[in-house]
């Protein structure tokens, strides 16, 4: 999580979520702050659930000590049993405006690159070295191409732009390769049931209740995923979840996997993922919001 201030109020805990293509403000917080809705509501599908979202324009807001650019955001219900006080989601549309972001799970810090021009609509996965500063890449090495897709929509009648940014990575199991959303907001890595069936993964414990897309209750089955290649990095055997994944990818690469590589650099500009040296999961990490710099 990171602390976000809006119109001089806050800070409010927001999930740092590369898997969220758009930034989302909880509807109850939007009401408290008297945010003016500029479009909606409209019905959308979240995993297997239907929900309604509206839109608001944020002109004065920040994360940590960093001022954020004016932006159109979604307004809707934010629910998470693991993070009951969550007030929103800081998505890839906002994070990508900095070109690259560095997450240090151990130190619990979020480091942002300089705010830059908007991304082009398609960023093909690169192969390193990155064009971002050495301070962001310190302690990391190139791990995997990370193609990025950018989609813009004009909201009427106010003609505001809503931008969706979607980073993905490819996970390989021998000759089989699958495209996953890079999703720091997901507590674990999750695979679509079709992938589990194809790879014949073994069950690893009973099903459990969870939330997908924050506000969609789902039942997640757990499986043992054997060694896999994330670009140049071999991931060790680990337990992953499985539930329905919306079209576009067949899974999410979550923080439950990424936390083993510290720090993590998401380079939106070059379409690259950099990882630090592999470690054991940081079990001592607390739930306090990470700071930004």
Q: How would you describe this protein?
A:
By secondary structure, the protein is mostly beta strands. It folds into two domains: 2-95, Acid Proteases (Cathepsin D, subunit A, domain 1, Beta Barrel); 118-281, Beta Barrel (Cathepsin D, subunit A, domain 1). It has five helices and 27 strands. Strands 12, 14, 15, 16, 17, 18, 19, 20, 21, 22, 23 and 24 form a twelve-stranded mixed beta sheet that branches.
Give the overall average pLDDT: 90
Would you tell me which CATH topology of the largest domain applies? Cathepsin D, subunit A, domain 1
Instruction: Write out the CATH superfamily name of the largest domain.
Output: Acid Proteases
- What is the CATH-assigned architecture of the largest domain? Beta Barrel
Characterize the overall form. globular
Distance between the first and last residues' Cα: 14 Å
SS field, number of helical segments: 5
Under the CATH scheme, which class of the largest domain?
Mainly Beta
What does this entry show, briefly?
With 293 residues, the protein is mainly beta. 9% of the residues lie in helices and 49% in strands. Strands 12, 14, 15, 16, 17, 18, 19, 20, 21, 22, 23 and 24 form a twelve-stranded mixed sheet that branches. Strands 4-5-8-3-9-2-1-6-7 form a nine-stranded mixed sheet.
């Amino acid at each position: 999580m990171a602390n976000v201030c809006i119109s001089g109020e806050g800070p409010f805990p927001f999930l740092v979520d590369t898997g969220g293509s758009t930034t989302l403000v909880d509807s109850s917080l939007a009401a408290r702050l008297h945010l003016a809705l500029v479009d909606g509501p409209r019905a959308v599908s979240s995993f297997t659930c239907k929900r309604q979202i509206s839109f608001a324009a944020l002109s004065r807001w920040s994360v940590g000590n960093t001022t954020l650019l004016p932006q159109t955001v979604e307004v809707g219900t934010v629910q998470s049993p693991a993070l009951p006080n969550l007030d929103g989601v800081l998505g890839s549309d906002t994070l990508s405006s900095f070109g690259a972001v560095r997450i240090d799970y151990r130190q619990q810090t979020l480091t942002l690159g300089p705010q830059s021009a908007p991304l082009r609509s398609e960023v093909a996965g690169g192969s390193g070295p990155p064009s971002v500063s050495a301070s962001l890449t310190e302690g990391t090495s190139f791990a995997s191409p990370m193609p990025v897709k950018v989609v813009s929509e004009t909201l009427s009648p106010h003609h505001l732009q809503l931008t969706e940014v979607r980073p993905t990575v490819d996970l390989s199991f021998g000759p089989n390769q699958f495209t996953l959303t890079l999703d720091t907001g997901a507590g674990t890595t999750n695979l679509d049931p079709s992938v589990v069936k194809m790879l014949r993964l073994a069950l690893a414990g009973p099903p459990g209740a969870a939330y997908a897309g924050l506000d969609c209750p789902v039942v997640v089955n757990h499986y043992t995923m054997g060694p896999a290649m994330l670009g140049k990095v071999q991931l060790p055997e680990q337990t992953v979840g499985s539930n329905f994944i919306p079209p576009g990818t067949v899974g999410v690469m979550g923080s439950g996997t990424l936390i083993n590589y510290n720090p993590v650099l998401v380079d939106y500009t070059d379409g690259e993922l950099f990882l630090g040296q592999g470690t054991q999961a940081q079990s001592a990490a607390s739930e306090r919001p990470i700071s930004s710099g």
